[in-house]
Amino acid sequence: MPTEVPARVQVALVQMKCVEAKGPNVEKALARIGEAAAAGAQIVCLQEIFAGLYFCQTEDHRMFAQAEAIPGPTSEALAAAAKQHGVVVIGSLFEKRAAGLYHNTAVVFDADGSQVGLYRKMHIPDDPLYYEKFYFTPGDLGFRAFDTRFGRIGVCVCWDQWYPEAARLTALAGAQMLFYPTAIGWHPSEKAEYGVSQHSAWETMMRSHAIANGVFVAAPNRTGMEGNIEFWGASFISDPNGNVLARASHDREETLIIECNLDQVDVVRTHWPFLRDRRIDAYSDLTRRYLD
To answer: What positions carry a catalytic annotation?
Structure first.
């Protein structure tokens, strides 16, 4: 890896529709990585569990057969694509760690195809149509950042994006860019009444992480109707001031490519010195569930 990363980095977010069979999804993702690289991208991030449909809408033991070890066929294909195109690749996978032990895991490959990072989703939801606790063991690797050829990046996954603690700890690990592979959408029965508000809350939450931590935040989301969820797309990238630099449509497959100037991280943090002014001596109660 070079001793210095470039200040200006081209980041790509791949927003896809998925089908049931794994092969076509993986092939599409690999093609999108190649297209993004040809267009100048240096870091490419795929959506959550990109290799299949979002299967957590039901509790079905047959779905465990979709999981793979890391390394395994899908992660090795991503590594090969990273090496072939000279780009950093972030892929979200259904990981089989051991018999009966499964994770929702993001793997990071550097531009030479080497694996530089592994993040296991820490916050696991259990909501209607999002029955992830049935499938995924909570992560045990903590919140981390990884050095790549094109910057030091952090990765969390979907439900993690609602937790300021996760973003803060990833930023404190040195991340300049924070990626959130995502699978979120509307229940059709709720969309008319709550849809605009739900999408706004999702984006606002991550933009607030960018502001509070002085980092770039990027969230690739899936799109299309799967079962009883209309995934709302709207993948986006925010700068450290919380400005949305690019946003995809709700209902189309797209690959966003946007330039991020990493020098902006230091500029923003020196003008809004939130990390400097944190009262770390006063936060011990954050490790408690509730202050009774």
So the answer is: 48, 121, 158
